[in-house]
Specification:
The protein is of the alpha+beta class and 379 residues long. 50% of the residues lie in helices and 17% in strands.
């Protein structure tokens, strides 16, 4: 989606006084309902725990005391911390009142009392920890999913002009929901210049995923806002200002003129890009573009290289998880990757999607590392 289409969509939302008034009333109702919803939930859980206590006294042979643990867990999942202790006070009162009644009951042992009490302490600590993050109830998972979706949206490839196709695959280590590898794409309003950056932050899994979410916003703001020559120096300066303990990342940046086919590549500590010549059917690894990782050297210089894509030509970007693995030389991984890419591109019935997926499938690191591949081809 170009910037022009986004602006047009926003104008359409603003238009219409009835829609504006409706949105204003809806926001007002939500503000009124939200605190009342929490009070109703508190009342429901407190009454539920109290009713459970009545059942324990009325039918001691059918309703064990340990059923109170259910209310302890549910209250911690759905209620804010300040309301949680009201329900726990009801549960504690029920247990204390049941002691004289069920003192000689074998199922009402000290282990049950200690177990429910310990569960209340654990769930209260977890609830307080979630509250410090501003998370109430089960919305924590929603927040993580939203952040993950925002990261994926930044790498969504826009519709390119006729004669060009691009695709990518990003897979996280061991099937984790977050990856340390991510892509960000941008297309100018006139549809002429397409830019993409593939970033690999330090670490992997959820730890790297949180840094990816942080860095992707800055990269999205820079991409397309500065010239290709200024992009990596600006990203490096931003990362240095963050002063992360593990504050470095590698990146490769590609800018393509979709009219002439001319392109430039810059990299920061990242594996070199590769270009495909459809005439010879050979891949050429670009060793000219060079520079240190982002966030390491202040005022670092990043050397860019360039070329021109003829019909059938392609450029391939990839992360180190595709070519590196313990016990093998990187050159072996590069040859393996380019062999798979050449075979896929030379097939007359093969698509670019199949090409990038095949490259990821033959990655030397397997499932033990984050892997990302991006390819653009001129038809």
């Amino acid at each position: 989606m170009t910037a022009k289409s986004v602006v047009a969509g926003r104008v359409g939302v603003r238009s219409g006084p009835l829609r504006t008034a409706s949105a204003r009333w809806r926001r007002s109702l939500e503000r009124l309902w939200r605190p009342r919803r929490q009070v109703l939930a508190l009342a429901g859980f407190a009454l539920g725990a109290f009713g459970n206590g009545v059942a324990i006294h009325a039918w001691p042979d059918r309703v064990p005391t340990v059923t109170l643990a259910l209310w302890v867990v549910l209250a911690a999942l759905f209620l804010p911390t300040r309301h949680l202790f009201v329900v726990y006070a009801v549960v504690a009162t029920v247990i204390v009142s049941a002691v004289p009644v069920r003192l000689f009951d074998e199922r009402f042992t000290a282990l049950v009392i200690v177990g429910v009490g310990a569960l209340m302490v654990v769930m209260a600590v977890l609830s307080a920890s979630r509250a410090r993050l501003g998370i109430v109830g089960l919305t924590g998972e929603d927040v993580l999913v939203d952040l993950r979706d925002r990261l994926a949206a930044g790498g969504r490839i826009p519709v390119l002009t006729d004669g060009w196709e691009a695709d990518d695959v990003v897979r996280s280590a061991d099937g984790e929901p977050f990856s340390g590898d991510f892509l960000v794409c941008a297309l100018t309003e006139d549809g002429r210049r397409f830019e993409v950056v593939l970033v690999d932050v330090s670490g992997k899994g959820r730890g790297a995923g949180s840094r990816s979410l942080h860095l992707s916003g800055a990269v999205s703001g820079l991409l397309g806002s500065v010239t290709p020559e200024e992009f990596l120096p600006a990203a490096n300066a931003y990362l240095l200002r963050q002063e992360w303990d593990e504050g470095f990342a590698t990146a490769v940046h590609l800018a393509v003129d979709l009219v002439t086919g001319a392109y430039t590549v810059g990299r920061a500590g990242h594996p070199p890009s590769a270009s495909f010549d459809s005439g010879s059917g050979a891949w050429l690894v670009d060793e000219v573009a060079a520079g240190p990782p982002l966030g390491v050297v202040e005022g670092a210089v990043f050397v860019r290289s360039g070329g021109e894509l003829a019909s059938g030509g392609a450029v391939l970007l990839y992360s180190d998880g595709v070519v590196e693995s313990e016990g093998f030389d990187v050159s072996v991984g590069v040859e393996r990757m380019l062999g798979a890419a050449a075979g896929a591109l030379m097939r007359t019935d093969g698509t670019l999607r199949e090409c990038v997926e095949q490259i990821v499938d033959v990655a030397r690191a397997g499932q033990s590392d984050d892997r990302a591949v991006f390819a653009i081809r001129r038809r």
